[in-house]
Amino acid sequence: MSLRVGSLGLKSTASTWIRFSPHVLCEENIENLRVIVSDGKVVSHLAIWEGWLHFYGIWLKVGLIGCVCTHPDYRMKGYASSLVKDAFAKLYRDHVDFVMVSGARSLYSRAGCVEAGIIYNYYVPLNTLKDLATSLDELKVESYSEDKTSDLIELYQREPIRFRRSFEEFKLFADRVFLAEVEALSISVSYRMNKPTSYVALVKGFFNNLTVVEYAGSRIDVLKTLYDASKDLKVEYVRFPIPYGDWELIILLEGSGLKPKISQAPASLAILNPAIFANKIRPYIEERLGVKANFKVVTHNDGGLEVYMFGECARLRDPKAFTTLVFGRPETVHNQDTIEFDYTSIPKAFRKAFPIPSFNYGLNYL
Ligand SMILES: CC(C)(COP(=O)(O)OP(=O)(O)OC[C@H]1O[C@@H](n2cnc3c(N)ncnc32)[C@H](O)[C@@H]1OP(=O)(O)O)[C@@H](O)C(=O)NCCC(=O)NCCS
Fold first, then answer.
1. What is the pLDDT of residues 252-276, one digit of tens each?
2. Which of the following CATH numbers is that of domain 119-264: 3.65.10.10, 3.40.630.30, 3.20.20.140, 3.40.630.10?
């Protein structure tokens, strides 16, 4: 089977879609591109990407869902809903641990997703970056070119939370575009004594604003690199989404008097099998708590579950409540679905472990 990409009645062209998701709209991923054909043409589409996320030494199998789209003439017939259902069935079959869907719609919450995880959105003015960066004059900042791919890999590999990427994927991602933005990605890499110390990947938006898509390496060098890049790109402030748990970066920014404007979820998330997920993250939880907490989850046929830790038990009626307990709930949510989750009823001991640090898509965005 070969791949032909069309635009399903949307404004963006097929070639933009390919550059937007080069890891997904490719022949190797063809079994993960799910379509509905009607009247002899593709009228609805959904893409899956399956891969691995490294979380503090634990590899979790992750499924990303995106590029969900129905031709305007074929909407409201349940096509996207069937594709989402089919995608979840495939991800279960493939033993995926958790799913990230870019977007917040009841389409996704019906499938078991909830907006969970916390990303703080900072808006950093250039003069704040300048103040933070003044003592770092010996840092050399250069624009990314293909011969620097191994430097990016070296830096990314040091991150406690990251996707598994091949060298080829890294090269593809470094050249990708983000649909909402006008320009391609720009990546700056910093060096000290000829060793890579940080990188920052940025996209420039319609209103001359910059958004950080991904960063890695020394946090203070990240800020200096960001300062140099934003001067070159002639912007006045940078939108800097920082995941819950990156306290070093948060402390550097808050020490300069900044506060996040909002916090939002990185995606709509679903933990597919809470008992298996709990088993997988137990080493992280026990290491963090410093004791054997006997953390485990028992699931029931009606979808309810019990979470055990330190001999205490939290009973949750909805698996979405478990996803919320583990990843946390941001201040701002876009899909007002009600989840039965009362944080105050959770035993205090659990709050030492949850929420776990959040993660962002970075260049793997789908
Ligand atoms: C969002 C989008 C993919 C939905 O596609 P769709 O095929 O119309 O979706 P469905 O028909 O399955 O569901 C649409 C709505 O119709 C309702 N619906 C589903 N089947 C129905 C039926 N047989 N009769 C009447 N209504 C129905 C659903 O409740 C759903 O609403 P909800 O998800 O808000 O609860 C489509 O509008 C689209 O392509 N938008 C532009 C791209 C986009 O925004 N993509 C999503 C990015 S997050």
1. 999 999 999 899 999 999 999 999 9
2. 3.40.630.30
